[in-house]
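Long-time lurker, first post. I've been practising inverse folding by hand and with some scripts of my own, and I keep getting stuck on stretches where the structure tokens seem ambiguous. Below is the full token string for one chain I'm working on. Before anyone asks, I'm not after the true native sequence, just a reasonable design that respects the backbone. If someone could post their per-position residues I'd love to compare against what I wrote down in my notebook.
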């Protein structure tokens, strides 16, 4: 998906999928969906994206992405976490 200039190499996608499978095997039952392969990303539910962004992503992506891309992904994860905390605080 997307232009070739912004895609991850196939070996990186396979590495992420491998780490997601390991994470899924050890994730608690409280997660609504077990992590699936990146090849199934078009079938992912919002909870699977959220799980990647908030919980498994910072650990999985560190081993795969370049330092610059990893730092960017951590900032995105931090921002999403902050927005969710603010939303929950306003409800309570």
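-- Answer (accepted) --
I ran through it position by position. Result:
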């Amino acid at each position: 998906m997307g232009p070739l200039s912004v895609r991850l190499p196939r070996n990186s996608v396979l590495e992420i999928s491998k780490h997601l499978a390991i994470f899924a095997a050890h994730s608690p039952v409280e997660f609504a969906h077990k992590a699936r392969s990146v090849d199934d990303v078009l079938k992912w539910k919002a909870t699977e994206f959220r799980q990647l962004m908030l919980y498994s992503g910072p650990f999985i992506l560190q081993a795969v992405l370049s330092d610059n891309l990893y730092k960017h992904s951590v900032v995105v994860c931090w921002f999403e976490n902050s927005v969710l905390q603010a939303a929950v605080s306003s409800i309570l």
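A couple of notes from the structure itself: The chain is about 60% helix and 0% strand. The helical segments are 10-26, 46-60, 67-91. Happy to go over any region you disagree with.
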